[in-house]
Amino acid sequence: MATNPKLLKGTRGRIFQIIIDECGMCTEPESMAAIIATRAKQVILIGDHKQLRPIVMSTEAAKLGLETSLFERYAHEATLLTSQYRMHPEICAFASEQFYSNKLKTERSYLWMTNIPLRTWINTNVPVKIFKHLVDEELIDPEYINIMSQYNAQCTAIRKALKAEKFIKFNVNTVVASQGGEWDYIIMSLVRSLPNYRIEPNPTLGWCKQNLGFITDEHQTNVALTRARKGLIVVGNSELLMCSKVWGSFINHYGRRGCVVDKEEFPPKRIHKKKKRKCRKE
């Protein structure tokens, strides 16, 4: 749009400042074309180079640097906005530590604050069953839930399964399509799995890319983990995920908080405390 001939002709010599939003997702030539075409004296770049990068179809072009955005090139001079209002502090904690050097601060906001925490949920780790539980048992409006996956095929399969369960209203999106969005609850399906005997104890980068696929993309991982306001549910093979540096840190971080549960141990049994009898003195 910024290089549209009609727009340029009508605004020639009248543009002083150009603002490029989501600049981290633009290739450098795309950003430079807008700057040169408008001849702006002042340029403001807005984005997050830690999240989605430009989509470059050519592997060779990406290796040569085309997937490095103009924003990322100047990121060392950028001003980081450290206050966030979307995520619950416990959801924000890992992303802040892993991607932003513990600089993110959670401010009080009605978006993530809730007086009704989730109760114990279902006994398997299937995304559709989790969704069904949230809607039927926790009475959460489907509009506030987003099921995510990094694979289109998985998203298609989940949509079919939800329709088979007679759900009409639901959100199922890829991570890329979820960029910029936010929901109260996120169910993240990581898809990839292997039997334990096939998981390498000392995996190489090549092995990880082959067996973990898009999960190794730290930029997509950052996007996925920062969409939820109140609750984040990740479905995956913890043994395989430990092969990834980021996901391994994620599992350790929430494992220490008692948030990593094996499907065989789920749901946790509720402990009923016996009431103590009161003794009356006569």
Characterise this structure.
- The structure is a single chain.
- This protein is an alpha/beta fold and 282 residues long.
- 35% of the residues lie in helices and 12% in strands.
- The protein has 12 helices and 8 strands.
- The radius of gyration is 23 Å and the shape is globular.
Keywords:
two-stranded parallel sheet, disordered C terminus, RNA helicase, 282 residues, alpha/beta, 8 strands, globular, 35% helix
Short structural summary:
This protein is α/β, with parallel strands linked by helices and 282 residues long. It contains 12 helices and 8 strands.
Task: Map the helices and strands.
Blueprint: H1 5-11, E1 17-20, H2 28-38, E2 42-45, H3 59-66, H4 70-73, E3 83-84, H5 89-99, E4 105-106, H6 127-136, E5 145-149, H7 152-164, E6 172-174, H8 175-178, E7 183-189, H9 205-212, H10 218-225, E8 228-235, H11 238-241, H12 245-255
Parallel strand pairs: 1-2, 3-4, 5-6, 5-7, 7-8
